[in-house]
């Protein structure tokens, strides 16, 4: 289904996916390294500084003008965490020159631009340009602060912090606010050199391209020192602590946020991964799930109620927005839905419907270059490779017994409740 060819060009794994499905060609650079308190904020800042200028286009304005000249090419950067890996993504989308009458060499120019962003950044005397660094530090502070202002995102972050204390996964991919001020243009440049030398590097090229020409272009433009990155160890999930940690935090909020974190003891590495996906779909992943129907629709207890998986860490998160006074009742009904899953209290129709939704969701994701890269990148983060065909077949073959078995592994670890300054929960259980 997906014709992905992977070839090493020096330290870069080049993933070429030839297709005439899109009217654009997409180039995606991904670099990953372990999450670490010492580097997480430097790393959160780095791609934003890199996208602010190159040696030839040393300002945001000059760079944006050049993108406009490339028929409106787009440049985006992103930070994420996959398990306990911190991933930097830089993506350029450019028009397929075959659709343009003069057929300009847009793909070559876009690839050159990416190489320049990474290897020929705007510098000032052997360091990043201090004005650019300070400007991006201000923007980084705003991004971090925005999480505190968005209470849904804040509750998600706080649940992870409480649940994964002492684990790298507790760190936010956007870095730590208290570490921003200390970053200098010199220090960030030193980290940039370290990242290029040590990170695992992957380049995805998707579109109307020929593998041989892509590899030649990458060989000529991405000249990096050859090195041997350490082999990726399997990402083992942390074990449940046994006793449930309950944290109640009070702020001036009208709507309570009840988030619950579970250890699943299953990751992308495991044979039970497809069964876990199905479990989550029936439990809380979709609009037909037990959480949505029983907590939100039937009991009218929640403004929203859903669950999601962290596939490379082995976590299941339940998110709900409730009236503070409904804390105990909402938690009880969520617990009842989990117990129903463990008891096998779900229908064959729910199984069929969930398999269909998972299949459709995967195929829809593959319909965009960005989604295609994210699905394929699972095989880089994990030591286990899964083809799309295997993914679809594996999902179809999951049985009721598989789902119940996986449900039996799911253990509640942490309950986090963000509530108003008065009422809604027992103060005796306040964790902060």
TrEMBL record:
UniProt domain Peptidase M16 C-terminal: residue ranges: 183-356
Q: Which SUPFAM superfamilies match?
A: LuxS/MPP-like metallohydrolase
**Top-rank taxon:** Bacteria
Q: Which GO terms describe its molecular function?
A: metal ion binding
* Cited Pfam families: Peptidase_M16_C (PF05193)
Spell out the InterPro entries in the cross-references: Metalloenz_LuxS/M16 (IPR011249), MPP/UQCRC_Complex (IPR050361), Peptidase_M16_C (IPR007863)
PANTHER family given in the database record: INACTIVE METALLOPROTEASE YMFF-RELATED, METALLOPROTEASE
Q: What is this protein called?
A: Peptidase M16
Can you name the source organism?
A: Geobacillus subterraneus
């Amino acid at each position: 289904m997906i014709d992905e060819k992977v070839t090493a060009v020096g330290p870069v794994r080049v993933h070429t996916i030839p297709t005439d499905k899109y009217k654009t060609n997409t180039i995606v650079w991904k670099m990953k390294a372990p999450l670490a308190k010492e580097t997480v904020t430097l790393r959160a800042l780095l791609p934003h500084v890199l996208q602010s200028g190159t040696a030839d286009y040393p300002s945001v304005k000059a760079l944006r003008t050049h993108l406009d000249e490339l028929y409106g090419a787009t440049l985006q950067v992103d930070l994420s965490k996959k398990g306990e890996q911190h991933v930097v993504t830089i993506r350029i989308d450019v028009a397929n020159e075959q659709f343009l009458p003069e057929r300009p060499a847009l793909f070559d120019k876009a690839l050159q631009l990416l190489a320049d962003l990474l290897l020929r950044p705007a510098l000032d005397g052997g360091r990043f340009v201090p004005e650019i660094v300070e400007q991006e530090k201000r923007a980084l502070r705003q991004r971090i602060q925005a999480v505190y202002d968005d209470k849904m995102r804040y509750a998600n972050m706080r649940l992870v912090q409480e649940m994964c204390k002492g684990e790298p996964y507790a760190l936010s991919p956007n870095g730590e606010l208290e570490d921003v001020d200390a970053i200098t243009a010199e220090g960030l440049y030193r980290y940039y050199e370290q990242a290029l030398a040590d990170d695992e590097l992957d380049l995805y090229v998707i579109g109307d391209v020929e593998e041989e020409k892509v590899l030649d272009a990458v060989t000529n433009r991405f000249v990096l020192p050859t090195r041997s990155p350490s082999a990726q160890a399997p990402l083992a999930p942390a074990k449940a602590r046994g006793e449930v940690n309950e944290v109640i935090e009070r702020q001036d909020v009208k709507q309570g946020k009840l988030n619950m974190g579970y250890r699943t003891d299953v990751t992308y590495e495991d044979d039970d991964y497809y069964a876990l996906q199905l479990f989550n779909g029936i439990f809380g992943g979709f609009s037909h799930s037990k959480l949505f129907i029983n907590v939100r629709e039937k009991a009218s207890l929640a403004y929203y109620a859903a669950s999601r998986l962290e596939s490379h860490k082995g976590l299941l998160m339940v998110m709900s927005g409730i009236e503070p006074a409904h804390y105990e009742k909402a938690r009880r009904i969520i617990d009842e839905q989990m117990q129903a899953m463990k008891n096998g209290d779900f229908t064959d129709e729910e199984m069929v419907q969930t398999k269909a939704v998972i299949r459709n969701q995967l195929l829809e994701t593959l319909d965009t270059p960005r989604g295609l890269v994210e699905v394929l990148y699972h095989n880089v983060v994990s030591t286990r490779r899964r083809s799309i065909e295997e993914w679809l077949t594996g999902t179809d073959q999951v049985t009721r017994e598989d789902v119940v078995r996986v449900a039996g592994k799911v253990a509640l670890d942490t309950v986090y409740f963000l509530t108003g300054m008065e009422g809604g929960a027992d103060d005796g259980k306040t964790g902060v």
